Amino acid sequence: MSKVIGYMEGTDPVLLTTLAVNGCSVEPFSNGIDGHGLSIQMIHKERKPDLIVCHLHKLLPSPGMDITVSKLLYRPCVFGIPIIIICPKECQEKVGELAPDLPDCAYLTDPADVISKIREMIE
User: Sheet holding 25-30: strands in order across?
Assistant: First the structure.
């Protein structure tokens, strides 16, 4: 059975194609605002990916929004779904200021290391 990789809008199509030709199913997921796919807040035991990949900005609330990163990622974390958050290495130390509640199921990953991190986590 192939692994299901959830992705959010803006994820590199070359990455998604690479995953698909290597036997993974790729499914769109949404941050609940952009309507790109199933909201990650609606994940349940019958509909859950093995891993989610997205860019950091897809998880950061806009001013005035009443949600935190940990609330947004609550359902994936409850189901033990790792989340690879694409963020350039040189920006990662600032993430704590923007998302001080980043959960343990989230992994900041430099764009150059995304495919290797995915392979590491799904094998």
Answer: 38-39, 25-30, 4-8, 51-55, 83-86, 106-109
